[in-house]
Structures are given as C-alpha cells and as structure tokens.
Task: structure prediction
Amino acid sequence: MTAFMHKGYGKTSMQDLKKATGLHPGSIYCAFDSKRGLLLAALGQYKKDRNSEFNDFFPGKAAVLTELKHYLDHIVQECLSCDASKACLLTKALNELADQDDEIQGIVTENLAGWQQSITMLFEQAKVKGELSTQRDSEHLARYFVMGVYGLRTFAQTHPKAHVLQQLADQLYHDVCYEPAPKIAEQVVN
Amino acid sequence: MTAFMHKGYGKTSMQDLKKATGLHPGSIYCAFDSKRGLLLAALGQYKKDRNSEFNDFFPGKAAVLTELKHYLDHIVQECLSCDASKACLLTKALNELADQDDEIQGIVTENLAGWQQSITMLFEQAKVKGELSTQRDSEHLARYFVMGVYGLRTFAQTHPKAHVLQQLADQLYHDVCYEPAPKIAEQVVN
DNA sequence: TCCTATCTTGAATGTTCGTTCAAGATAACC
DNA sequence: GGTTATCTTGAACGAACATTCAAGATAGGA
Result:
C-alpha cells in the first residue's frame, strides 16, 4: 500500500515490492497472481483502513458538523505532513490509471462513491439533529465536499504555506455548512 | 504534449513519442536531449497555449465575473468531453512526479502559480469595476477558485453525469463570486 | 557538379522490468 | 522417523525500455 502511494503504480518495481512486503517475487505471484493483483489487494486494504478511520471520526459524541470539521482538519494535517503514505491511494490511482484500466477505475470510483455516500449520510444526520437546514441537498453538499477535498489534496502538492491550506479548508467547511441555499436566479446566469 | 497527457509521462514510450512527433529517436534526442527534455518542452508549449487560451476568454467586453463564468463552463466542457488531450498537463504531471523530480515539480508549481495570479488580477479588476466587494481577498478567492478547478478535474474522472458536474461548477462560482465575507466567529470553531 | 555541413534514420546497446519455475526448506501428520 | 503437502527461494527469461551512433539522406553554396 505505502509502496504504491510513494512511487505510484507504474514506477513501483518488483524490487520495491520485495522490500516493502519482505516476500520474494515467487511468493508475491503465488499470493496475488501479478503486480496488478497486489494493487487490487492494496486497494482493498486501503478501503478497510480508511473506513475504520472514518468511523473513528464520527462517534456521535459532538455535533455532526463539528466532527466533520475535525475530520477535514485531519485531512489538512495529512496534506501538510508531506508524507506520501498519508496521501489518498484512491485519487492517486485514479489520476494514474484512468482511461488505462477500466476495472481498477471502476473499483476506485466505487470506493470514492462509498466515501461520498457516507458523507451524504452525515448531512442527513445533521438535518435530523437540527444542525443543518432541511432545505439543503445532502447529496449535493457531499459531492461538493469531496470535490473540495480532491482540490485540497492537489493544491497541497504545490507546497503552499500551512495557514493558506487551512484557510482554504475553513472556507470549504463554511461554504458547505453555513451557506444559505443559493438563489436559482444567480445560478443560471451563463 | 498530447501523448504525455494520454498516458502520463512514465507510460509514454519512445515509440509513442515517435508516432506522436513523426521524428525518429535520434532526432528527438538531438533536439531535446532526453525524454525528460521533451516533457520540459511540452510543458513550455502547454503554458504558451493555455496562456493564449486564457487571454481569449477575457477580452473585457463583458463583466469580468461573467467572463470568468464562461471560462469555468469551458473547463466543465473539457472535463465532460472525456478527451485526455483536454486534460491539464500541469496537474497530471504534478500528481505523477511530485516528490520524484524536484525541478519539474518546481516548474509545474510556478506555472500553476502564474495561472492563479492571473485569476487574482481578474478579481482585482472586478473590484475596480464594482462587480465584487472590495472587502473580499482577491488572492484567497483565486486560490479557492483554482482549488475548486483541481477538485472538479479529479471528480470528473469518476465519470459523473453532466448536470452533476455543472452543478458543482455553478456552486463553486457562486461561493467565489456571491458569498458575503464569512464571520470570523464561524471560521475559528474547531 | 561537387563539396561540405546539417539533419535524419533505425538497428544495436545495455539496463530494467514483470514474470516464471525448479530446487530447496518447512511443517504437518501418522 | 518417514512421508507428504505446502510454502519459500532467487536465479533465469523474454520483453520492453531509454538511449546511442555510425551510416545514409538532404540541401546550400561555389
């Protein structure tokens, strides 16, 4: 997992994977069929790890939106750490393999959709708890939130200063959670 | 340029480049020193092309923010076309080569900073023309806008429906151009 | 027409890649 | 302790890669 995150799929050699796993080529091929099979397994593990981490951020002990803010701040810290093992394997694989491997693209897209769906449910919860206007569209908000996180992660790769990245995250959180529903008239201007 | 955009730098072979340029390996090495040199040249050409395209979108014949909306809608169309040659070579190179080639990362980061700077100047113009509150921070708005575009481009690779992507772009435009300055109290909650 | 300087060609090079497999090690069972 | 079944090893393989270079083509000047 971390090997693929550091160098990307294409540039990670069997020698790298040998070092990373402690297994010899024969064992890797026995267990995972191919380098690609190992990537699929890594994606599976990544999904499991991230799901678990996600749930830890939402124990329901504080306001949903407050927990969401902490979650977003955690992502900012990951970006700032400049540690490749804290990057998102899903977006990395998506950027590298889109339009080259339909099956992997499908798996990655499904995983990201699952993440987005979890966030949609958070907003639904927030509505029930009265933290969010029931007028807002939870699915749209979740899509906008994940789009913002994608943007944040890419922006972070240009090595901005910490407070700049945090400011962008704060703005994103504000736009998602505190913005009144936009007037239709403004949106249709073209 | 388009060859690198389709397969990424690493997966683009000399044979691909031979087909794409119509030159034989010897000529390519004579003119560009190496495959990496050809990428540098492609980045230079890309910058030139995109700068020219950018300027075409802002002739100053309409409101600055209206021209910006058209520009954003154009980006959405590029994303929806699913044509790899309409992707952003800069973000693609950034995602692939970050933390692997410092010089290229630097060049890409500079180019993206230049683009962001151009957008900052648009907001400054908009303030002068009275289209935008002088209270707003042009640099912050520009950063948020480019972050949104990064996010939009990544989101597009999960192949969402056209109206979903357009809705996200509309929201981004709204948040950047019509949002009142957020209250400090809301931003510092943590 | 010939000479020279520049450009083009594509086969050859050495390296590195993903992958395989037969030999060896280990463990489990009776 | 002997036999079998499973796992581990790492050398070896062909393919594909970026790169080189000597031979050939081209064009401009005299």
